[in-house]
Amino acid sequence: MWLPFLGLIFGLALGLLTNIQIPSMYENYLSIAVLAALDTLFGGIRAQLQQVYDDKVFLSGFFFNIVLAAGLAFLGVNLGIDLYLAAIFAFGVRLFQNIAIIRRILLIRIDKKRHNNKKTPVE
Amino acid sequence: MQRNMYTRITIVLFIIGLMIAVQYNTMQKPAERDTRDIWAIREELAQEKQRHSTLLAEIRSLQEVVGRYEQSEKVNQQAALTETFNRLKLQAGLTEVKGPGVILRVEPAAELIAMGYEIKEISPDLLTQLLNELFKNDATSVSIDGNRVVQTTAIRDINGRTTVNSLPLSSPPFAIYVGTSDFKAAQKMYNSLQASTFIDSFYLDNYKLVIEEPIEHLQIPAFDQPLTNDYLAEVKKGD
Fold this sequence. Notes:
The complex is a heterodimer of chains A (123) and B (239). The relative contact order of chain A is 0.11. With 123 residues, chain A is an all-alpha fold. Chain A is 85% helix and 0% strand. Chain A has one domain. In chain A, α2 packs antiparallel against α3, α2 packs parallel to α4 and α3 runs antiparallel to α4. Chain B contains seven helices and nine strands, in the order αααβααββββββααββ. In chain B, strands 1, 2, 3, 7, 8 and 9 form a six-stranded antiparallel beta sheet that branches. In chain B, strands 4-5-6 form a three-stranded antiparallel beta sheet, with helices on one face. In chain B, α2 packs antiparallel against α3. Chain B has a domain of 124 residues: Protein of unknown function DUF881 (Alpha-Beta Plaits), CATH 3.30.70. The mean pLDDT of chain B is 84. Classes of the chains: A mainly alpha (123), B alpha+beta (239). Chains A and B meet through α1, α2 and α3 of A and α1 of B. Chain A: InterPro entries: DUF1290. Chain A: Keywords: Cell membrane, Membrane, Transmembrane, Transmembrane helix.
């Protein structure tokens, strides 16, 4: 269960300790890629909570979203249209929605637990 | 199956973490780029070369001293010691210096007095800046209004009066004597002072800075107060 978090911490530590940097011209792409990755991550958590999680969907969504977002940003730069704003908007809205759904599911679960706990002593 | 899923999610989270960390690094500490062009690098190289040659000259002079001591070990050690002593005294500014140099005169600007401007004390900052410029142009000895400038000289405002070595400057006009190593250096000093903005800076304070032509024989007085050194200690024999 804690393995994924270990992975996250290990990735953060590796990045911070090795002090890897990317050229400033690619900053935009990376920021959108990070947003896409976060969106996929929260989407995955939501799916898991709703019990519709599919490994293939998650993995393909992760890589596909990142590539799509970066590609959109690249296209936008070359066409002179700020297409990366579309990606930020789409991912941002979905991120908030996913987090809201996760919150509600968790709240319902907590409520259920309390309800059960109250009921048991009476029985 | 379950285990496989966790491994994949771990890898994905690892990638996310790495991406966030790299993004954070890039935003927080942008790598300093070397933006010097070939001229800036050449200039820096020239500065280092200059330092190199100064250090070499110093080494040579010290080696000469060592050689002299070694030679005179049998003949006359006292003469060598006296010579070193005199040289150090000269360096410290405790002896009168005669040689080529430039005279700067600081006078109140006549036209401003006629217009009714009040002439205030000359600011210590301006004098300090002028001194820095003089030493930058290879001045070897400087006296301001008869006060020799040495390592410990302070130019400051004491109760509204500008002082050098804690002695107030006489009211303008007064002269600043600048000694140089040779006449060529004096000429260079004259030219660079003429080209500098000091004449304008002094005029802003209602003063006129007159830079006289370099002369061959300039007499700069010795530092006449006791030289205090609070931080130097005598080295014990054998240390």
